[in-house]
Protein backbone atom coordinates (compact mmCIF):
# COMPACT_ATOMS: atom_id res chain seq x y z
CA UNK A 1 0.00 0.00 0.00
CA UNK A 2 1.11 3.49 -0.85
CA UNK A 3 2.21 5.48 2.18
CA UNK A 4 2.42 9.21 2.88
CA UNK A 5 3.17 11.16 6.05
CA UNK A 6 0.17 13.39 5.65
CA UNK A 7 -2.79 13.26 3.28
CA UNK A 8 -4.68 16.55 3.06
CA UNK A 9 -8.21 16.26 1.69
CA UNK A 10 -9.45 19.44 0.03
CA UNK A 11 -7.28 22.10 -1.62
CA UNK A 12 -9.15 25.24 -0.61
CA UNK A 13 -7.54 27.90 1.57
CA UNK A 14 -7.38 25.61 4.62
CA UNK A 15 -6.06 22.54 2.76
CA UNK A 16 -3.47 24.50 0.78
CA UNK A 17 -2.13 26.20 3.89
CA UNK A 18 -2.10 22.90 5.80
CA UNK A 19 -0.13 21.20 3.03
CA UNK A 20 2.33 24.10 2.76
CA UNK A 21 2.93 24.34 6.50
CA UNK A 22 3.46 20.57 6.82
CA UNK A 23 5.74 20.40 3.79
CA UNK A 24 7.80 23.32 5.11
CA UNK A 25 8.31 21.30 8.29
CA UNK A 26 9.65 18.47 6.15
CA UNK A 27 6.67 16.12 5.97
CA UNK A 28 5.85 14.21 2.79
CA UNK A 29 2.43 15.55 1.88
CA UNK A 30 -0.20 14.42 -0.60
CA UNK A 31 -2.97 16.92 -1.33
CA UNK A 32 -6.11 15.52 -2.96
CA UNK A 33 -9.11 17.39 -4.36
CA UNK A 34 -12.16 16.18 -6.25
CA UNK A 35 -12.14 19.25 -8.49
CA UNK A 36 -10.22 19.75 -11.71
CA UNK A 37 -8.49 22.83 -10.29
CA UNK A 38 -7.08 23.51 -6.85
CA UNK A 39 -7.97 26.50 -4.69
CA UNK A 40 -11.50 25.71 -3.55
CA UNK A 41 -13.51 28.91 -3.30
CA UNK A 42 -10.44 31.20 -3.21
CA UNK A 43 -10.37 31.91 -6.93
CA UNK A 44 -13.96 33.20 -6.78
CA UNK A 45 -13.03 35.77 -4.15
CA UNK A 46 -12.20 38.80 -6.28
CA UNK A 47 -12.53 41.22 -3.35
CA UNK A 48 -9.78 42.43 -1.04
CA UNK A 49 -9.57 40.49 2.21
CA UNK A 50 -9.78 41.98 5.68
CA UNK A 51 -7.29 41.37 8.47
CA UNK A 52 -3.75 42.53 9.05
CA UNK A 53 -0.57 42.11 7.01
CA UNK A 54 -0.05 38.62 8.46
CA UNK A 55 -3.46 37.66 7.08
CA UNK A 56 -2.69 39.10 3.61
CA UNK A 57 -5.17 41.91 4.25
CA UNK A 58 -5.90 44.11 1.26
CA UNK A 59 -4.93 41.29 -1.11
CA UNK A 60 -7.70 39.86 -3.28
CA UNK A 61 -8.63 36.23 -2.61
CA UNK A 62 -7.83 35.24 -6.18
CA UNK A 63 -4.28 36.60 -5.78
CA UNK A 64 -3.83 34.82 -2.43
CA UNK A 65 -4.85 31.62 -4.25
CA UNK A 66 -2.19 32.15 -6.91
CA UNK A 67 0.49 32.80 -4.27
CA UNK A 68 -0.46 29.66 -2.34
CA UNK A 69 -0.33 27.51 -5.48
CA UNK A 70 3.12 28.90 -6.33
CA UNK A 71 4.28 28.09 -2.84
CA UNK A 72 2.89 24.55 -3.06
CA UNK A 73 4.72 24.09 -6.33
CA UNK A 74 8.02 25.40 -4.93
CA UNK A 75 7.70 22.90 -2.10
CA UNK A 76 7.04 20.08 -4.56
CA UNK A 77 3.82 19.12 -2.85
CA UNK A 78 2.20 16.17 -4.56
CA UNK A 79 -1.29 17.19 -5.75
CA UNK A 80 -3.90 14.82 -7.08
CA UNK A 81 -6.81 16.57 -8.74
CA UNK A 82 -10.03 14.90 -9.93
CA UNK A 83 -9.58 12.69 -6.90
CA UNK A 84 -12.53 11.92 -4.66
CA UNK A 85 -11.85 10.87 -1.09
CA UNK A 86 -14.58 8.30 -0.46
CA UNK A 87 -13.84 7.13 3.03
CA UNK A 88 -11.38 6.76 5.89
CA UNK A 89 -10.78 3.33 7.41
CA UNK A 90 -8.86 2.14 10.47
CA UNK A 91 -8.19 5.82 11.30
CA UNK A 92 -5.27 6.00 8.87
CA UNK A 93 -6.33 4.66 5.48
CA UNK A 94 -7.83 6.96 2.88
CA UNK A 95 -9.80 5.39 0.06
CA UNK A 96 -9.73 7.58 -3.05
CA UNK A 97 -11.02 7.30 -6.60
CA UNK A 98 -8.89 9.05 -9.20
CA UNK A 99 -10.41 10.32 -12.46
CA UNK A 100 -13.60 8.42 -11.68
CA UNK A 101 -11.82 5.22 -12.67
CA UNK A 102 -8.94 4.19 -10.40
CA UNK A 103 -9.71 3.11 -6.87
CA UNK A 104 -6.88 2.96 -4.37
CA UNK A 105 -6.17 3.14 -0.68
CA UNK A 106 -3.36 5.19 0.82
CA UNK A 107 -1.85 4.63 4.21
CA UNK A 108 -1.69 8.10 5.77
CA UNK A 109 0.15 8.51 9.04
CA UNK A 110 -1.85 11.68 9.51
CA UNK A 111 -4.97 12.92 7.73
CA UNK A 112 -6.03 16.55 7.50
CA UNK A 113 -9.64 17.08 6.49
CA UNK A 114 -10.22 20.44 4.82
CA UNK A 115 -13.45 19.54 3.10
CA UNK A 116 -15.17 22.90 3.50
CA UNK A 117 -18.91 23.40 3.67
CA UNK A 118 -22.05 23.22 1.56
CA UNK A 119 -24.59 25.96 0.93
CA UNK A 120 -27.89 25.76 2.76
CA UNK A 121 -31.12 25.80 0.80
CA UNK A 122 -34.34 27.70 1.37
CA UNK A 123 -37.46 26.03 -0.02
CA UNK A 124 -40.46 27.96 -1.29
CA UNK A 125 -43.03 27.36 -4.04
CA UNK A 126 -41.18 27.79 -7.32
CA UNK A 127 -37.74 27.09 -5.86
CA UNK A 128 -37.06 24.37 -8.45
CA UNK A 129 -37.47 26.82 -11.36
CA UNK A 130 -34.31 27.47 -13.35
CA UNK A 131 -32.92 30.75 -12.06
CA UNK A 132 -33.04 29.81 -8.38
CA UNK A 133 -29.52 29.01 -7.21
CA UNK A 134 -27.09 29.25 -4.36
CA UNK A 135 -25.21 32.54 -4.07
CA UNK A 136 -22.01 30.52 -4.34
CA UNK A 137 -23.17 29.08 -7.65
CA UNK A 138 -23.85 32.57 -9.00
CA UNK A 139 -20.39 33.63 -7.80
CA UNK A 140 -18.82 30.68 -9.63
CA UNK A 141 -20.66 31.62 -12.80
CA UNK A 142 -19.60 35.28 -12.81
CA UNK A 143 -16.08 35.05 -11.39
CA UNK A 144 -14.85 31.71 -12.74
CA UNK A 145 -16.85 31.18 -15.93
CA UNK A 146 -17.61 34.84 -16.65
CA UNK A 147 -21.27 34.16 -17.35
CA UNK A 148 -24.10 36.21 -15.85
CA UNK A 149 -26.72 33.92 -14.31
CA UNK A 150 -29.34 36.58 -15.05
CA UNK A 151 -29.86 40.31 -15.38
CA UNK A 152 -32.21 41.01 -12.50
CA UNK A 153 -31.26 39.43 -9.21
CA UNK A 154 -33.00 38.90 -5.89
CA UNK A 155 -30.60 38.00 -3.08
CA UNK A 156 -31.96 36.02 -0.13
CA UNK A 157 -29.75 36.52 2.91
CA UNK A 158 -27.62 39.47 4.04
CA UNK A 159 -24.67 37.70 5.63
CA UNK A 160 -21.24 38.41 4.18
CA UNK A 161 -21.75 35.86 1.39
CA UNK A 162 -25.04 37.49 0.36
CA UNK A 163 -23.72 41.03 0.32
CA UNK A 164 -20.33 40.21 -1.24
CA UNK A 165 -21.95 38.21 -4.04
CA UNK A 166 -24.50 41.02 -4.52
CA UNK A 167 -21.63 43.46 -4.97
CA UNK A 168 -19.86 41.15 -7.39
CA UNK A 169 -23.07 40.64 -9.41
CA UNK A 170 -23.28 44.44 -9.72
CA UNK A 171 -19.65 44.50 -10.83
CA UNK A 172 -20.45 41.81 -13.40
CA UNK A 173 -23.16 44.05 -14.84
CA UNK A 174 -26.34 42.65 -13.32
CA UNK A 175 -28.98 44.62 -11.46
CA UNK A 176 -29.60 43.54 -7.90
CA UNK A 177 -33.26 44.37 -7.25
CA UNK A 178 -33.23 43.72 -3.53
CA UNK A 179 -31.48 41.93 -0.69
CA UNK A 180 -33.98 40.22 1.61
CA UNK A 181 -33.15 39.27 5.19
CA UNK A 182 -35.54 37.35 7.45
CA UNK A 183 -33.85 38.55 10.64
CA UNK A 184 -34.62 42.03 11.98
CA UNK A 185 -31.01 43.11 11.36
CA UNK A 186 -28.60 42.71 8.46
CA UNK A 187 -25.97 40.04 9.00
CA UNK A 188 -22.95 41.12 6.97
CA UNK A 189 -20.23 43.64 7.70
CA UNK A 190 -21.50 47.22 7.50
CA UNK A 191 -18.81 48.16 5.00
CA UNK A 192 -20.12 45.45 2.63
CA UNK A 193 -23.78 46.43 3.03
CA UNK A 194 -22.84 50.10 2.62
CA UNK A 195 -21.17 49.61 -0.76
CA UNK A 196 -24.16 47.60 -2.02
CA UNK A 197 -26.57 50.19 -0.65
CA UNK A 198 -24.79 53.15 -2.23
CA UNK A 199 -25.10 51.31 -5.54
CA UNK A 200 -28.84 51.77 -5.03
CA UNK A 201 -29.79 48.28 -3.85
CA UNK A 202 -32.58 48.25 -1.24
CA UNK A 203 -32.34 45.98 1.81
CA UNK A 204 -35.48 44.47 3.35
CA UNK A 205 -34.97 43.22 6.89
CA UNK A 206 -37.74 41.16 8.48
CA UNK A 207 -38.78 39.95 5.03
CA UNK A 208 -38.53 36.69 3.15
CA UNK A 209 -39.33 35.26 -0.25
CA UNK A 210 -42.80 33.71 -0.34
CA UNK A 211 -42.73 32.21 -3.81
CA UNK A 212 -41.18 32.42 -7.25
CA UNK A 213 -43.28 32.68 -10.39
CA UNK A 214 -42.48 31.75 -13.97
CA UNK A 215 -43.26 29.13 -16.58
CA UNK A 216 -39.89 27.70 -17.56
CA UNK A 217 -37.67 30.06 -15.53
CA UNK A 218 -37.98 32.64 -12.78
CA UNK A 219 -39.93 35.69 -13.96
CA UNK A 220 -40.81 37.27 -10.62
CA UNK A 221 -40.66 36.71 -6.89
CA UNK A 222 -43.10 37.56 -4.13
CA UNK A 223 -41.61 39.04 -0.97
CA UNK A 224 -43.47 39.23 2.32
CA UNK A 225 -42.90 40.92 5.66
CA UNK A 226 -42.46 38.70 8.72
CA UNK A 227 -43.83 39.25 12.20
CA UNK A 228 -41.82 38.87 15.41
CA UNK A 229 -42.38 35.09 15.29
CA UNK A 230 -41.03 35.04 11.70
CA UNK A 231 -44.51 34.30 10.29
CA UNK A 232 -45.56 36.02 7.05
CA UNK A 233 -47.94 38.95 7.59
CA UNK A 234 -50.89 38.65 5.20
CA UNK A 235 -51.41 41.69 3.03
CA UNK A 236 -47.73 42.75 3.01
CA UNK A 237 -46.82 40.76 -0.11
CA UNK A 238 -45.22 42.55 -3.04
CA UNK A 239 -43.77 41.30 -6.29
CA UNK A 240 -40.31 42.01 -7.69
CA UNK A 241 -39.41 41.61 -11.34
CA UNK A 242 -36.40 39.27 -11.27
CA UNK A 243 -35.02 36.44 -13.42
CA UNK A 244 -32.64 35.06 -10.79
CA UNK A 245 -33.01 34.30 -7.11
CA UNK A 246 -29.77 33.71 -5.21
CA UNK A 247 -29.88 32.00 -1.84
CA UNK A 248 -27.27 32.91 0.75
CA UNK A 249 -28.74 31.22 3.82
CA UNK A 250 -25.57 30.05 5.44
CA UNK A 251 -23.32 27.04 5.09
CA UNK A 252 -23.17 23.60 6.68
CA UNK A 253 -19.81 21.96 7.39
CA UNK A 254 -19.01 19.04 5.05
CA UNK A 255 -18.46 16.54 7.85
CA UNK A 256 -19.22 13.24 6.06
CA UNK A 257 -15.64 11.95 5.92
CA UNK A 258 -14.93 12.98 9.51
CA UNK A 259 -18.02 11.38 10.97
CA UNK A 260 -17.66 8.34 8.71
CA UNK A 261 -14.20 7.90 10.19
CA UNK A 262 -15.72 8.06 13.69
CA UNK A 263 -14.68 11.54 14.78
CA UNK A 264 -16.66 12.67 17.80
CA UNK A 265 -19.19 15.42 16.99
CA UNK A 266 -20.12 18.63 18.80
CA UNK A 267 -23.11 20.79 17.94
CA UNK A 268 -22.23 24.41 17.28
CA UNK A 269 -25.27 26.37 16.05
CA UNK A 270 -23.16 29.52 15.59
CA UNK A 271 -20.64 27.75 13.34
CA UNK A 272 -23.05 25.79 11.15
CA UNK A 273 -24.24 22.78 13.18
CA UNK A 274 -22.51 19.50 13.88
CA UNK A 275 -18.73 19.69 13.62
CA UNK A 276 -15.96 17.28 14.63
CA UNK A 277 -14.67 17.99 18.11
CA UNK A 278 -11.13 19.38 17.94
CA UNK A 279 -8.54 21.01 20.13
CA UNK A 280 -6.43 24.14 19.60
CA UNK A 281 -4.01 22.17 17.45
CA UNK A 282 -6.97 21.16 15.19
CA UNK A 283 -6.67 17.50 16.20
CA UNK A 284 -9.97 15.61 16.36
CA UNK A 285 -10.97 12.87 18.79
CA UNK A 286 -9.09 10.47 16.51
CA UNK A 287 -5.41 11.30 17.11
CA UNK A 288 -4.35 10.70 13.50
CA UNK A 289 -7.05 12.99 12.04
CA UNK A 290 -6.89 16.78 11.97
CA UNK A 291 -9.37 19.26 10.51
CA UNK A 292 -9.19 22.84 9.29
CA UNK A 293 -11.41 25.47 7.71
CA UNK A 294 -15.18 25.43 7.36
CA UNK A 295 -15.47 21.71 8.20
CA UNK A 296 -14.38 22.62 11.72
CA UNK A 297 -17.00 25.40 11.95
CA UNK A 298 -17.98 27.89 9.26
CA UNK A 299 -15.96 31.10 9.41
CA UNK A 300 -14.12 32.76 6.56
CA UNK A 301 -11.17 32.21 4.26
CA UNK A 302 -8.76 34.15 6.49
CA UNK A 303 -9.48 31.95 9.51
CA UNK A 304 -9.49 28.84 7.31
CA UNK A 305 -5.93 29.62 6.19
CA UNK A 306 -4.72 30.06 9.77
CA UNK A 307 -6.46 26.87 10.88
CA UNK A 308 -4.88 25.07 7.95
CA UNK A 309 -1.44 26.27 9.02
CA UNK A 310 -2.19 25.12 12.55
CA UNK A 311 -3.33 21.67 11.42
CA UNK A 312 -0.34 21.25 9.09
CA UNK A 313 2.09 22.37 11.76
CA UNK A 314 0.60 20.16 14.46
CA UNK A 315 0.32 17.09 12.24
CA UNK A 316 3.96 17.48 11.17
CA UNK A 317 5.05 18.01 14.76
CA UNK A 318 3.21 14.88 15.89
CA UNK A 319 5.33 12.94 13.37
CA UNK A 320 8.50 14.37 14.86
CA UNK A 321 9.25 16.88 12.13
CA UNK A 322 9.69 19.93 14.32
CA UNK A 323 11.71 20.69 17.39
CA UNK A 324 9.56 21.53 20.39
CA UNK A 325 10.75 25.14 20.57
CA UNK A 326 10.16 25.78 16.87
CA UNK A 327 6.72 24.18 17.15
CA UNK A 328 5.86 26.26 20.18
CA UNK A 329 6.79 29.60 18.63
CA UNK A 330 5.01 28.87 15.36
CA UNK A 331 1.97 27.59 17.28
CA UNK A 332 1.84 30.83 19.25
CA UNK A 333 2.16 32.97 16.11
CA UNK A 334 -0.68 31.17 14.32
CA UNK A 335 -2.83 31.23 17.43
CA UNK A 336 -2.22 34.96 17.76
CA UNK A 337 -3.39 35.47 14.15
CA UNK A 338 -6.49 33.37 14.79
CA UNK A 339 -7.41 35.27 17.92
CA UNK A 340 -7.00 38.58 16.09
CA UNK A 341 -9.50 37.41 13.45
CA UNK A 342 -11.86 36.20 16.16
CA UNK A 343 -12.19 39.51 17.97
CA UNK A 344 -14.56 42.43 17.74
CA UNK A 345 -18.32 42.57 17.42
CA UNK A 346 -18.46 39.80 14.80
CA UNK A 347 -15.46 37.73 15.77
CA UNK A 348 -16.05 37.38 19.49
CA UNK A 349 -19.16 35.26 18.89
CA UNK A 350 -17.11 32.89 16.72
CA UNK A 351 -14.32 32.80 19.30
CA UNK A 352 -16.79 31.88 22.03
CA UNK A 353 -18.30 29.17 19.81
CA UNK A 354 -14.85 27.76 18.99
CA UNK A 355 -13.91 27.67 22.65
CA UNK A 356 -17.19 25.89 23.43
CA UNK A 357 -16.34 23.21 20.85
CA UNK A 358 -12.87 22.71 22.31
CA UNK A 359 -14.25 22.61 25.85
CA UNK A 360 -16.88 19.99 24.98
CA UNK A 361 -16.14 16.54 26.33
CA UNK A 362 -13.76 14.71 24.08
CA UNK A 363 -15.61 11.42 24.74
CA UNK B 1 -41.17 51.30 7.38
CA UNK B 2 -39.22 54.04 5.67
CA UNK B 3 -36.36 52.19 4.05
CA UNK B 4 -34.99 55.22 2.26
CA UNK B 5 -34.70 57.99 4.80
CA UNK B 6 -31.16 59.18 5.30
CA UNK B 7 -31.69 60.67 8.72
CA UNK B 8 -33.71 57.87 10.29
CA UNK B 9 -32.16 54.86 8.60
CA UNK B 10 -29.65 52.67 10.36
CA UNK B 11 -26.65 50.68 9.20
CA UNK B 12 -28.07 47.33 10.30
CA UNK B 13 -31.47 47.80 8.66
CA UNK B 14 -30.94 49.99 5.60
CA UNK B 15 -27.40 48.82 4.83
CA UNK B 16 -25.88 52.31 5.09
CA UNK B 17 -24.98 54.35 8.15
CA UNK B 18 -27.18 57.39 8.66
CA UNK B 19 -25.60 60.77 9.29
CA UNK B 20 -26.93 60.56 12.84
CA UNK B 21 -25.08 57.28 13.36
CA UNK B 22 -21.90 58.66 11.84
CA UNK B 23 -22.06 61.85 13.89
CA UNK B 24 -22.43 59.75 17.04
CA UNK B 25 -18.99 58.20 16.45
CA UNK B 26 -15.80 60.09 17.19
CA UNK B 27 -14.02 58.32 14.32
CA UNK B 28 -16.05 59.99 11.56
CA UNK B 29 -14.40 63.36 10.99
CA UNK B 30 -15.58 65.52 8.12
CA UNK B 31 -13.03 68.25 7.38
CA UNK B 32 -14.49 71.74 7.25
CA UNK B 33 -13.57 74.84 5.23
CA UNK B 34 -10.44 75.44 7.32
CA UNK B 35 -8.76 72.49 5.64
CA UNK B 36 -7.02 73.64 2.46
CA UNK B 37 -6.33 70.25 0.91
CA UNK B 38 -8.25 66.97 0.72
CA UNK B 39 -7.93 64.58 3.67
CA UNK B 40 -9.17 61.05 4.30
CA UNK B 41 -12.64 60.51 5.75
CA UNK B 42 -13.19 57.06 7.23
CA UNK B 43 -16.66 55.52 7.52
CA UNK B 44 -15.65 52.41 9.45
CA UNK B 45 -17.88 52.15 12.49
CA UNK B 46 -17.99 48.41 13.23
CA UNK B 47 -15.23 46.63 15.11
CA UNK B 48 -14.04 44.25 12.40
CA UNK B 49 -10.51 42.77 12.42
CA UNK B 50 -8.79 44.93 9.84
CA UNK B 51 -5.93 47.42 9.62
CA UNK B 52 -4.59 47.93 6.06
CA UNK B 53 -5.47 51.65 6.30
CA UNK B 54 -2.99 52.00 9.15
CA UNK B 55 -0.20 50.11 7.37
CA UNK B 56 -0.84 51.91 4.05
CA UNK B 57 -0.47 55.39 5.52
CA UNK B 58 3.06 56.72 4.83
CA UNK B 59 2.78 59.50 7.43
CA UNK B 60 1.15 57.45 10.21
CA UNK B 61 -1.96 59.60 10.29
CA UNK B 62 -4.22 56.59 10.84
CA UNK B 63 -4.09 54.57 14.05
CA UNK B 64 -5.74 51.22 14.65
CA UNK B 65 -3.33 49.84 17.20
CA UNK B 66 -2.41 46.35 18.31
CA UNK B 67 -6.04 45.27 18.67
CA UNK B 68 -6.91 45.09 15.00
CA UNK B 69 -10.62 45.35 15.75
CA UNK B 70 -10.13 48.88 17.05
CA UNK B 71 -11.79 51.50 14.87
CA UNK B 72 -9.31 53.51 12.80
CA UNK B 73 -8.69 57.01 14.10
CA UNK B 74 -7.39 59.63 11.71
CA UNK B 75 -5.38 62.72 12.55
CA UNK B 76 -6.48 65.07 9.79
CA UNK B 77 -3.76 67.54 10.71
CA UNK B 78 -1.15 64.93 9.75
CA UNK B 79 -3.01 63.48 6.74
CA UNK B 80 -1.54 64.69 3.44
CA UNK B 81 -4.43 63.45 1.32
CA UNK B 82 -2.22 61.05 -0.66
CA UNK B 83 -5.09 58.56 -1.01
CA UNK B 84 -3.15 55.34 -0.40
CA UNK B 85 -5.61 54.34 2.34
CA UNK B 86 -8.55 54.84 -0.03
CA UNK B 87 -7.36 52.01 -2.24
CA UNK B 88 -6.00 49.93 0.64
CA UNK B 89 -9.28 49.72 2.55
CA UNK B 90 -10.85 46.32 1.75
CA UNK B 91 -14.22 47.70 2.83
CA UNK B 92 -14.10 50.64 0.40
CA UNK B 93 -14.99 52.76 3.40
CA UNK B 94 -12.52 55.63 2.93
CA UNK B 95 -12.62 58.63 0.61
CA UNK B 96 -10.84 61.97 0.49
CA UNK B 97 -12.82 65.17 0.85
CA UNK B 98 -12.21 68.92 0.78
CA UNK B 99 -15.11 71.25 1.38
CA UNK B 100 -13.95 74.28 -0.62
CA UNK B 101 -12.14 72.98 -3.65
CA UNK B 102 -13.35 76.21 -5.22
CA UNK B 103 -15.80 78.69 -3.75
CA UNK B 104 -18.80 76.66 -4.91
CA UNK B 105 -17.40 73.19 -5.38
CA UNK B 106 -16.33 70.45 -3.02
CA UNK B 107 -13.81 67.72 -3.83
CA UNK B 108 -14.04 63.97 -3.37
CA UNK B 109 -11.72 61.10 -4.32
CA UNK B 110 -13.57 57.83 -3.93
CA UNK B 111 -12.86 54.15 -4.66
CA UNK B 112 -14.65 52.67 -7.67
CA UNK B 113 -14.63 49.05 -8.82
CA UNK B 114 -17.10 49.08 -11.69
CA UNK B 115 -16.57 49.17 -15.42
CA UNK B 116 -16.76 51.24 -17.51
CA UNK B 117 -14.68 53.84 -15.74
CA UNK B 118 -15.56 57.50 -16.27
CA UNK B 119 -13.10 59.84 -18.00
CA UNK B 120 -11.63 63.16 -16.94
CA UNK B 121 -14.02 65.97 -17.71
CA UNK B 122 -17.05 63.71 -17.79
CA UNK B 123 -20.23 64.74 -15.99
CA UNK B 124 -21.30 62.04 -13.53
CA UNK B 125 -24.22 61.54 -11.16
CA UNK B 126 -23.09 61.80 -7.55
CA UNK B 127 -24.84 59.53 -5.06
CA UNK B 128 -25.40 59.59 -1.32
CA UNK B 129 -25.00 56.64 1.06
CA UNK B 130 -28.36 55.28 -0.11
CA UNK B 131 -27.51 55.29 -3.80
CA UNK B 132 -29.79 58.25 -4.50
CA UNK B 133 -28.50 60.73 -7.06
CA UNK B 134 -28.20 64.05 -5.25
CA UNK B 135 -26.34 66.19 -7.80
CA UNK B 136 -24.05 66.12 -10.79
CA UNK B 137 -20.28 66.19 -10.51
CA UNK B 138 -17.32 66.55 -12.83
CA UNK B 139 -14.51 64.02 -13.04
CA UNK B 140 -11.12 65.64 -12.46
CA UNK B 141 -9.07 62.50 -13.00
CA UNK B 142 -9.20 58.73 -12.75
CA UNK B 143 -6.26 57.06 -11.01
CA UNK B 144 -5.57 53.40 -11.76
CA UNK B 145 -1.97 52.84 -10.64
CA UNK B 146 -0.74 49.30 -9.99
CA UNK B 147 -0.38 49.93 -6.27
CA UNK B 148 -4.15 50.43 -6.02
CA UNK B 149 -4.57 46.77 -6.99
CA UNK B 150 -7.43 47.23 -9.48
CA UNK B 151 -9.43 49.66 -7.38
CA UNK B 152 -9.75 52.90 -9.35
CA UNK B 153 -9.79 56.19 -7.46
CA UNK B 154 -12.04 58.81 -9.05
CA UNK B 155 -11.34 62.47 -8.30
CA UNK B 156 -14.39 64.67 -8.82
CA UNK B 157 -15.86 68.03 -7.90
CA UNK B 158 -19.50 68.70 -7.03
CA UNK B 159 -21.68 71.44 -5.52
CA UNK B 160 -20.65 72.37 -1.99
CA UNK B 161 -24.31 72.19 -0.84
CA UNK B 162 -24.07 68.39 -1.08
CA UNK B 163 -20.66 68.26 0.61
CA UNK B 164 -21.48 65.73 3.31
CA UNK B 165 -24.12 63.73 1.42
CA UNK B 166 -22.07 62.68 -1.59
CA UNK B 167 -19.97 59.53 -1.12
CA UNK B 168 -19.64 58.00 -4.59
CA UNK B 169 -21.00 58.08 -8.13
CA UNK B 170 -23.76 56.25 -9.94
CA UNK B 171 -22.46 53.37 -12.03
CA UNK B 172 -22.25 54.10 -15.73
CA UNK B 173 -24.47 52.11 -18.07
CA UNK B 174 -22.82 49.18 -19.79
CA UNK B 175 -22.99 49.56 -23.57
Short overview:
The complex is a heterodimer of chains A (363) and B (175). Chain A has 363 residues and is an alpha/beta fold.
Describe the model.
The complex is a heterodimer of chains A (363) and B (175). Chain A is α/β, with parallel strands linked by helices and 363 residues long. Chain A has helices at residues 13-24, 61-74, 135-143, 160-171, 190-197, 256-261, 301-318, 324-341, 344-359; strands at 2-9, 29-32, 78-80, 83-89, 93-98, 102-113, 117-119, 132-134, 152-156, 175-181, 203-205, 207-213, 220-225, 238-240, 244-247, 251-253, 265-268, 273-276, 289-291. In chain A, strand 12 and strand 13 form a beta hairpin. In chain A, helix 7 runs antiparallel to helix 8 (324-341). The longest helix of chain A is centred in the last third of the chain and has 18 residues, at 301-318. The model of chain A has no long low-confidence stretch (mean pLDDT 96). By secondary structure, chain B is of the alpha+beta class. In chain B, 11% of the residues lie in helices and 27% in strands. Chain B contains four helices and nine strands; from the N terminus they run H-H-E-H-E-E-H-E-E-E-E-E-E. In chain B, the strands form two sheets. Chain B has a seven-stranded antiparallel β-sheet. In chain B, strands 2-3 form a two-stranded antiparallel ribbon. Chain B is globular and about 45 Å long. Chain B starts with 10 loop residues before the first helix and ends in a 6-residue tail after the last strand. The chains are: A alpha/beta (363), B alpha+beta (175). Chains A and B meet through helix 4, helix 5, strand 11 and helix 9 of A and helix 1 and helix 3 of B.
Can you tag this structure with a few keywords?
heterodimer, A: 363 residues, alpha/beta, 7-stranded mixed β-sheet, 5-stranded parallel β-sheet, 19 strands, 26% strand, B: 175 residues, two-stranded antiparallel ribbon, 9 strands, 27% strand
